[in-house]
Amino acid sequence: MAVDLLLGLQWGDEGKGKIVDVLTKDYDIIARFQGGPNAGHTLEFDGIKHVLHTIPSGIFHKTAMNVVGNGVVIDPVIFKKELDALGKFNIDFKSKLLISRKAHLILPTHRLLDAASEASKGKAKIGSTLKGIGPTYMDKTGRNGMRIGDLELSDWKEKYRSLADKHEAMISFYNVDIQYDLPELETAFFEAVEELKQLTFIDSEEYLYQAQKEGKKILAEGAQGSLLDIDFGTYPFVTSSNTTAAGACTGLGVAPNQIGGVFGIFKAYTTRVGSGPFPTELFDADGETMGRVGNEFGATTGRPRRCGWLDLVALKYAVRVNGVTELMMMKGDVLSGFPKLKVCTAYQYKGETITHLPYNIEPENVTPIYTEMDGWDKDLTKMRSPEEFPEALNNYINYLEKELEVPIKIVSVGPDRTQTILR
Ligand code: GDP
Ligand code: IMO
Ligand code: MG
């Protein structure tokens, strides 16, 4: 049985959590393959909004198993908070939530290193979520990291101490003013580790292999978005993992020939949180309207998201890099009321018109070239079938499908589970 993937095609926050929750009824296992608590995945149903950071978005369904894969980095303190927040929903975490022994641990000092690195960069900062993501993946690739499986060994605290001591020396090397109380952070960390140890640790690649053999349906849940990919994103303003389809293979141990559908999810416009290039960013009333109507504030950090028109150059690139087989368009409802909609189809780049993402996407090099389309007035949020769509929305969707050469199978018209329309 093939493993399907769902991943973001822009700079994150496309609505992955919502759609994974909607699709979970068709799957036996939901597995996160990369990223960590930098992610904020929002789900809404029965009038309640939930934000998940590390726990897969299938957790609210009775039958599905949820796996945190080896490619994920885990902060026990944030994980504990997530578990606590879900306490009232009677979820049997011990049997429904499985954690890869090979997933790496975010230590309190990784978070401090993230803060020190950002402070030292001044204006050139990445605008990271300050969750320690970069330093943790650096320790992983530097072969210094601590993994979940280490917590089952008797000497894990010694290992912890030597790594944390090294981090402290590195923090002082940055020579920036970072205030912290490490003993206090460590108390919270050790307490949270004990709670984490109550959960089930597994060799997830083996588990997923057996599940596949038994014909179980698996959906891999991505975090962040393709333009934040460490290799293919807008480097250095990216995250530290492979957010694109290949990341699911390395982040779960699923072989490339076992990947089935690749579901690419995008907003009907574009947002970005943190620093870095964003060619179609708007600084006018239209951008302000998108942010306000779309409630564009980071689910993890609360920072306002930068907003702009849909960028087809970037979207085509993401579709290609991921091998997307089905598209899902989110937040079309937010565009209701714009008399005209713009879609970027090419860039003016150093005097030339180009239709690919150049190496150097600095604002001074790149000017978006737009095509203009009619907008729609109607409120989409109460619609439940494509037959109700206004003609201008159908034109928008048909145009994008033609340009992207992939069908748009889901149109989302609001944050709730029920506001999801299949085409
Ligand atoms: P993720 O990180 O990809 O899971 O996305 P986030 O949860 O960070 O951000 C998406 C936001 O948009 C959340 O607040 C969702 O509740 C909300 N959302 C998802 N789909 C829709 C939609 O179709 N319309 C509107 N208005 N909001 C949506
Ligand atoms: P979800 O899964 C949007 C951004 C940060 C920053 C850059 C690096 O909710 O879509 P990091 O903390 O990873 O070192 O930050 O990446 N970023 C996200 N932006 N959605 C996310 O996740 C993000 N995770 C990281 O804002 O620009
Ligand atoms: Mg998010």
What does this structure look like?
The chain is an alpha/beta fold and 423 residues long. It contains twelve helices and 20 strands. The chain has helices spanning 16-23, 76-85, 93-96, 108-121, 133-141, 156-174, 182-196, 204-213, 245-252, 285-293, 312-322, 391-404; strands at residues 3-8, 29-32, 41-45, 48-52, 65-68, 73-74, 97-100, 104-105, 200-202, 218-221, 259-267, 270-272, 306-308, 310-311, 326-330, 340-349, 352-354, 366-374, 408-412, 420-422. The strands form five sheets. A ten-stranded mixed sheet has the order 9-7-5-2-10-1-11-15-19-20, sandwiched between helices. Strand 16 (340-349) and strand 17 form a beta hairpin. Helix 4 (108-121) packs across helix 5 (133-141). The protein starts with a strand and ends with a strand. The model has no long low-confidence stretch (mean pLDDT 97). The structure holds guanosine-5'-diphosphate, 6-O-phosphoryl inosine monophosphate and magnesium ion (MG). 6-O-phosphoryl inosine monophosphate (IMO) binds at residues 8, 11-13, 35, 38-41, 126-129, 131, 133-134, 223-225, 228, 237, 239-240, 273-274, 299. Magnesium ion is lined by residues 12-13, 39-41, 299.
